[in-house]
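Side project, low priority. Logging it here so it doesn't get lost.
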Amino acid sequence: MLSSNCTVHVMDIDDPIRTEDTIQIQPRKDEFLAMLAHELRNPLASIRNAVEVLRRLDLQEPRAEWARDVVDRQAAQLTRMVDDLLDVSRITRGKITLRVAPLNFAAVIVRAIEVNLPLIEAHRLKLIVESELLDIDLDGDEARLTQVLANILNNAAKYSNEGGRIWLSVEIKSGEAAVHVKDEGIGIPPELLPHIFDLFTQGPRTLDRAQGGLGIGLSLVRSLIEMHGGRVEVFSEGEGRGAEFVVWLPLRREQGLISGRDVRDSQATLSHLNF
């Protein structure tokens, strides 16, 4: 019989086993995700090729055109999710590298907008761009930075109410460029805000937002921005109050080295896009 002054120490003998199992499972999980992403890309490529064939047939039947466009949009969304999944797998295994070169941020922003135009137009959203602030030179991987901004814009469009507004602006502060993407959508609950960039984190789903994704896009955004020596922040006053994402990236030490034609071409593209 134990006395009242005796202290009993209980040790969970399963904890070391769980830790060891986790260490052994993690590499296999990463390899499986990479294999899954690769395998899914082949049928998706075939679907998108078939859509292009249908588009060239110049179908006159409205229902056929509608069905073709639905397949095209959903295949594009699935392709984005698979690409994100593959990139997350590469990052966790340390197998992703950046192709850094001098670039102007205007071209990056234009391409990110073009990627999301079908979704923006489908939701009848108003995208407001302060184009006079886009003449900024950076050192970075243009494809990856386009992917980062495209993911943030996609997130804003998905969680905005139909007919809502999204603002995109750029500022220069203390040797950094800050890209702001603000929406007036469903917002982010306070308890989720500190974890929004964690892998597989998602907000509450509703029936009209079943396309919430895998919860990996924002985690990928943070990883790619940090690889560029930058950071990303998020602000929201709560549910129903919208959200704002801010991406900070270091400027080139000497501005104005990028071709003026690149800047003019990007500005012209912005002026002709239908926001």
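Brief comment: The longest helix spans residues 14-56.
Revisit when time allows.
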